[in-house]
């Protein structure tokens, strides 16, 4: 029934409105789950003890905004967020990109992180949630890259094609399944010249995934399945128990979710 209602709403509402409503609804649902599990209070305890500077990973040294204090951002602050792709992200940080496009930027972890690491790149960050856009703008300001980070709303395939320049570009996507619509080589032919980092939501990261099949001819592809967290992940935390640390770094991700990088041939 939920799928029928979702399909009906999607067919009636304009795409930008539908996308905004679903993004806000998803954020509020996740925030409620975080509160019920006490993860917001755990995050605030950590911030009070250790501050808002990211302690490790490819974006070590990034300062987080107080706008995200109520969110479950422990793994980001500890530097072990999405650690499955940390080495790939580090490698991308050393590429000569002139442009980074981040679709589904949330509070700006990747948009601002890449802006800090790739000093010549201009970043365009898209998110349909107004809270996410405010948080991303604030994160860019705190990290002194606001002059190179432009934050926008809904991204359609036509908009993606329009903003992509001719120079080296990286496209980052975490948009809850909408990646299947955006990563369309017919609608966005410039993607053939881009590198892509995408979180896959609709199926496990396997060679049979539809997006892998779609980009096989134009890109070199690496797949990254998600891995359960252990207390050994992340730095030592003397102020917290092992159980609290494990809760802090748990990203509440489905076991079958994962990521892919598509590097142009």
Q: Could you characterize the architecture of this molecule?
A:
With 265 residues, the protein is of the alpha/beta class. Helices cover 39% and strands 15% of the residues. The protein has eleven helices and seven strands. It has helices at 2-12, 15-36, 39-50, 74-78, 86-92, 109-117, 130-142, 157-163, 179-182, 210-215, 242-249; strands spanning 99-103, 122-126, 149-152, 169-173, 195-200, 219-225, 258-264. Strand 4, helix 9 (179-182) and strand 5 (195-200) form a beta-alpha-beta unit. The termini are far apart. Mean pLDDT is 90; it is low at 1-13.
Layout of strands and helices, then pairs:
Blueprint: H1 2-12, H2 15-36, H3 39-50, H4 74-78, H5 86-92, E1 99-103, H6 109-117, E2 122-126, H7 130-142, E3 149-152, H8 157-163, E4 169-173, H9 179-182, E5 195-200, H10 210-215, E6 219-225, H11 242-249, E7 258-264
Parallel strand pairs: 1-2, 1-4, 2-3, 4-5
Antiparallel strand pairs: 5-7, 6-7
In short:
By secondary structure, the chain is of the alpha/beta class. It has helices at residues 2-12, 15-36, 39-50, 74-78, 86-92, 109-117, 130-142, 157-163, 179-182, 210-215, 242-249, and strands at 99-103, 122-126, 149-152, 169-173, 195-200, 219-225, 258-264.
């Amino acid at each position: 029934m939920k799928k029928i209602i979702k399909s009906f709403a999607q067919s009636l509402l304009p795409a930008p409105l539908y996308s905004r409503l679903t993004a806000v609804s998803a954020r509020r649902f996740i925030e409620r789950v975080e509160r019920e599990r006490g993860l917001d209070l755990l995050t605030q305890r950590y911030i009070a003890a250790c501050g808002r500077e990211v302690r490790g990973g490819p974006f070590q040294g990034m300062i987080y905004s107080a706008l995200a204090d109520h969110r479950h951002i422990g793994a980001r602050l500890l530097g072990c967020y999405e650690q499955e792709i940390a080495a790939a992200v580090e490698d991308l940080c050393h590429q000569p990109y002139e442009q980074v496009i981040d679709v589904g930027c949330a509070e700006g972890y990747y948009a601002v992180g890449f802006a800090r690491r790739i000093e010549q790149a201009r970043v365009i960050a898209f998110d349909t949630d107004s809270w996410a856009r405010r948080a991303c703008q604030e994160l860019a300001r705190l990290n002194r890259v606001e002059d190179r980070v432009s934050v926008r709303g809904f991204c359609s395939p036509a908009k993606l094609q329009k903003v992509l320049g001719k120079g080296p570009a990286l496209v980052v996507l975490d948009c809850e399944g909408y990646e299947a619509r955006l990563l369309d080589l017919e609608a966005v032919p410039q993607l053939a010249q881009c590198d892509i980092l995408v979180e896959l939501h609709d199926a496990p990261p396997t060679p049979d995934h539809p997006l892998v099949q779609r980009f096989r001819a134009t890109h070199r592809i690496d797949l990254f399945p998600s891995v359960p967290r252990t207390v050994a992940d992340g730095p030592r935390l003397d102020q917290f128990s092992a159980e609290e640390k494990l809760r802090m770094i748990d990203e509440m991700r489905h076991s079958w979710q994962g990521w892919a990088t598509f590097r142009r041939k």
